[in-house]
Amino acid sequence: MPITGARPSPLSHDPNLGHYMVSGITARRVPFNVLAPGVQAIRGELDAAIGRVLDSGWFLMGPELEAFEREFAAYHAAGAQAVGLGSGTDALRIGLLALGVEAGDEVLVVANAGVPPVAAVVAAGATPVFCEVDPATHTLEPAEIDRRVTPRTRAVVVVHLYGHAAPMVTIVERAHGHGIKVLEDCAQAHGARHGGKLVGTWGDAAAFSFYPTKNLGALGDAGALLTSDPQVADAARLFRMYGWRHKYVSEVHSTVSRLDELHAAMLRVKLRHLDEWNATRRALAERYLAGLPAGLEAPPRDGVFHLFVVQTRARDALKAYLAERGIGTDVHYPLPAHQQKPYQRYAQCGLPTTERLAREVLSLPLYPELDTADVDYVLDQLRAYGA
């Protein structure tokens, strides 16, 4: 049975850890992701942070948010500013608005990164213009900027997919050459670097998600916008809460999207562990890369490995085979955005690379709490399947 080949699924938590029988053989159970062990490892720090908020009696727009915004910005770059928001999708939407995108404008966006980037463009009142991706990195093909830009184009959303950085030097050069803004989507790339700089510091602004499964995750929905442009930061703060600069006085139309004090306090704790967790992810990824059978197309070696994504034309059969042996997998993402009902009307042409990748990608288990023995078991099953 040879292997031939070349923001998102809900949590895939399987509480039944251990071993079980498959066709008379003892199999190891490897969930696609589990979150409780990571929380328990820093439970004391999280409990102290939560207690601090409960004791303060201040639950929105308070000192924990201000501290997290300072610390998150300082982690990325001197002079950067962060604006805490309710979700990563809101960070994309508000980022576009803060960059001056208005109703009727066009925004370049990829279709292989799930629905959130496209949904945010539409929610901002703009028209998504779908772009093709590079088959090796799965990120925006820079030449697409030149192909797709029109007089109505105001911005491009660049997704650092699976934790791997897009080629930002070329992208920024091309985008700014056309006079359009660059909004980085860093939802899957906290702490990733490109050309010696952290992602999120290349464009005009960057959106981050802190969904629980992210490399830096809250215990619910949360997000932030990062920028080194004070005017963009000021606009984002207006858009996050009814357009208020002064309480009860709206300067612009907006609804509300706030990062609450509890999540800000917990994210402050987790931010201190981010580099360590990313190093563990990279070590596990290297173990995978060293043992993958030749028939599987491997991901790039760089990045922070939010996901470990391989490619094979036998994706569905391999996924079923691994499931039978207790190994959880997922597909990120099975249906490109331009083929989904709400967004089909924006599809001006086919995206053959994007569509092929949707048929071939498979995400294997990878998270900091994964045991190296689990990685070895997954590799053993991959090699057995391809034997």
CATH 4th-level superfamily of the largest domain: Type I PLP-dependent aspartate aminotransferase-like (Major domain)
Order of SSEs, N→C? Answer: EEHHHEHEHEHEHEEEEEHEEHHEHHEH
Looking at the structure, the CATH topology of the largest domain is Aspartate Aminotransferase, domain 2
Q: In total, how many beta strands?
A: 15
Which structural class fits the helix and strand makeup? Answer: alpha/beta
User: How many angstroms separate the termini?
Assistant: 7 Å
Number of spatially distinct domains: 2
Unreliable spans are 1-17
Helix content: 25-40%
Question: What fraction of the residues are assigned to beta strands by DSSP?
Answer: 15-25%
Radius of gyration: 21 Å
**Morphology call:** globular
What's the CATH class label of the largest domain?
Alpha Beta
**Overall mean confidence score, pLDDT:** 93
Helix tally equals 13
CATH architecture assignment of the largest domain: 3-Layer(aba) Sandwich
Give me the side-by-side strand order of the main sheet.
3-11-10-7-6-4-5
State the major sheet.
7 strands, mixed
Write the layout of secondary structure elements.
Elements (H helix, E strand, L loop, with lengths): L17 E5 L2 E5 L6 H6 L1 H14 L6 H14 L4 E5 L2 H11 L7 E5 L5 H8 L3 E5 L11 H6 L4 E7 L8 H10 L3 E5 L7 E2 L2 E2 L6 E5 L13 E5 L2 H11 L3 E3 L2 E2 L10 H11 L2 H18 L16 E4 L3 H10 L27 H9 E4 L7 H15 L1
Parallel strand pairs: 4-5, 4-6, 6-7, 7-10
Antiparallel strand pairs: 1-2, 3-11, 8-9, 10-11, 12-13, 14-15
Helix pairs in contact: 2-9, 3-9, 4-5, 4-8, 10-13
